[in-house]
């Protein structure tokens, strides 16, 4: 069973040591970049994805300045733990966490991914995210989950 834990001074080094496979590097920014970015994002949460006491992934999500809705900026599972169904469970944890935090005015969770990342597309589709037709941000397809 997976759970989320906030990134702190106790676990940030573990977070930045997580890596995706070499063929996936082009799909996601490093966790070090995400943690640096957190300094400039209000209302965002960096969390480790844990299986028992081992961090196996990382996520960054919060309220986007532009549309004031929730966005998942990062979602990754370490290369050693991929292919075990953890992505879907991790996304469910993030959705549930956002549901507990959100206000009534928040209606959606948005994310984006490289159009060539077929695995991400399949997983997000299965979790209820729907591509926003014609909406591309920085060469990435936008997909949205509606509460």
Write the layout of secondary structure elements.
Elements: E1 2-6, H1 12-17, H2 31-38, E2 44-51, E3 54-63, E4 70-77, H3 86-101, E5 108-113, H4 118-126, E6 130-137, E7 140-146
Written account of the structure:
With 147 residues, the protein is of the alpha+beta class. It has one domain (2-146): 3-Layer(aba) Sandwich (Aminopeptidase), CATH 3.40.630.30. The protein contains four helices and seven strands; from the N terminus they run βααβββαβαββ. It has a seven-stranded mixed sheet. The two termini are 24 Å apart. The relative contact order is 0.16. The mean pLDDT is 96.
Features:
147 residues; Aminopeptidase; seven-stranded mixed β-sheet; 27% helix; single chain; globular; alpha+beta
Largest sheet: 7 strands, mixed
Strand order of the largest sheet: 1-2-3-4-5-7-6
Helix content: 25-40%
N-to-C span: 24 Å
Domain N-acetyltransferase: 2-147
Protein name: Diamine N-acetyltransferase
GO molecular function: acyltransferase activity, transferring groups other than amino-acyl groups
Pfam families: Acetyltransf_1
In short:
This protein is an alpha+beta fold. It is 27% helix and 35% strand.
């Amino acid at each position: 069973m997976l759970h989320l834990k906030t990134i702190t001074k106790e676990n940030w080094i573990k977070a930045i040591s997580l890596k995706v496979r070499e063929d996936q590097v082009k799909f996601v920014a490093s966790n070090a970049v995400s943690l640096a970015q957190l300094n400039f994002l209000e209302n965002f949460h960096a969390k480790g994805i844990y299986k028992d006491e081992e961090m196996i992934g990382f996520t960054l999500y919060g309220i986007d300045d532009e549309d004031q809705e929730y966005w998942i900026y990062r979602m990754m599972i370490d290369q050693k733990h991929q292919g075990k169904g953890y992505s879907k469970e991790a996304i469910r944890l993030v959705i549930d966490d956002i549901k507990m935090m959100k206000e009534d005015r928040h209606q959606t969770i948005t994310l984006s991914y490289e159009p060539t990342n077929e695995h991400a597309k399949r997983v997000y589709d299965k979790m209820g995210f729907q591509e926003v037709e014609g909406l591309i941000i920085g060469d990435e397809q936008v997909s949205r989950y509606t509460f």
